[in-house]
Hints:
The chain is an alpha+beta fold and 278 residues long.
Amino acid sequence: MRTGVVLVQILLQTRIITRLTPPGPAARSKGMALISLDDLEGLDNDITDDISDDITEEQPMAEDRLLSHWQRVASTHQVSVPTEMTGPIHEMTQNSQQRETLPYAPISSHEKMGALQYEERVYPAGRWACVTRADGLYEQSISMAFMKLMRYICKENSLGRYLGMTVPVVSLIQMIEDGSGFQKSVLTGFFLPAQYQSCPPAPLDPEIQVQDWDPITVIARPFFGTTNESTVQRQISELWEVLAESDGVRRDRYMVAVFENPGVPQRRNEIWFLRDRI
Length: 278
């Protein structure tokens, strides 16, 4: 057996197993989000680099352990990850560096003592792949929706090819009438890559809809950490406290934009207040 194969076996038996250890009680108690566009970026970049093209016999082992990791994390949010997610998880890991960032035009920026309070922007009109779910928990809805979007991105489309990713992934939250909490129905979507904007591949899953959105004017405030219902409600309250001008800003719906791997302790997110209807 070649030296390279031996080294990879050692890595798979030590380093990878260590990296795939499920989160402990402290992490679970903080409501670690399950899935986002970058959910495998920090986890598996080094693993992918270490497994060279000429030792393909180790690929099934790596895929199985990635799936097991996702299943362990999902179980903390009462979500099951089926075995058919193995392929999409592995493919998104391999392509984790190939992402487009959704462009925007800044309108204004507001700071206090050198710290950004919020920024107003316009995001372009375009086509988004969207899934609407109404599961028991906010985390369940966005997790189940994103798994469907992963399969669409990873070849379950009319072209039968990997489409590529854009960031951020957004979730549209609608408030109940008294404003005290979220409605169960949550829309999760991502902006289709530029090459597919004019002719989007058709989803094979009937729950995925390709929607045409008008330009979106948002008031964006960054925050860091997890994105569960409690943290999102807190961010909404905090932005209302610092917002200098609220005319024309909607109070019945908000967006959460996720940019980074949920495994990053201080990952970047944004709460978006909306001026335009979508």
